[in-house]
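Many introductory courses stop at the sequence. We go one step further.
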Amino acid sequence: KKGPAEGRFKDKVRVSGMPCGGVSEVTGPLTWQGVFNLGLFWGQRSRRGFHRGNKFCSNGKEKSDYVIALIHWGKEDSHNLEPVQVETSKLYIEAGADVIVGTHAHTLQGIEFYNDRPIIYNIGDFIFNNESKDTGIFQIKLNNDGKMTYHFIPAHQENEYTDILHNEERTKVINDINSWSINAKINESGQIEKTS
């Protein structure tokens, strides 16, 4: 078994005191402020990546309190979901993932809950290039009892700078994501909630 902060890290960094980094396969478990263990997986949508991810989610659940899968998928510059995103996200959750966060599409996509666990299909580009596009920060808040709440902070990227949005611009991004979402809604405070 691997101890805290061990795994296959490429560029080790710390975020809020928690070790994390560019992960090619599996990390874990990571210890969050000495209280919870977090398993983190970053994978491709390839068959090999899927099998590694599925195995990690099931094995990671045995070693971690929470498993977060970061998946590189989605058609570039499209808000529409590909069938592979919808199908494999559910398989990762069934294997043990607590949260799925998609990357790669270079644009925001919708949100879905499956078995009461969130699938953030794509978080867009927070800082990427000279393009002008909406983006944001997906935030997980973990209370002392281990309950997770999920939040989204709208932002806009332009000319390699990203600003947090307010007022009408903020509301527009939230409304856009809500319109693309399957059974989730971002409320006025930014909390992501399951809808029926």
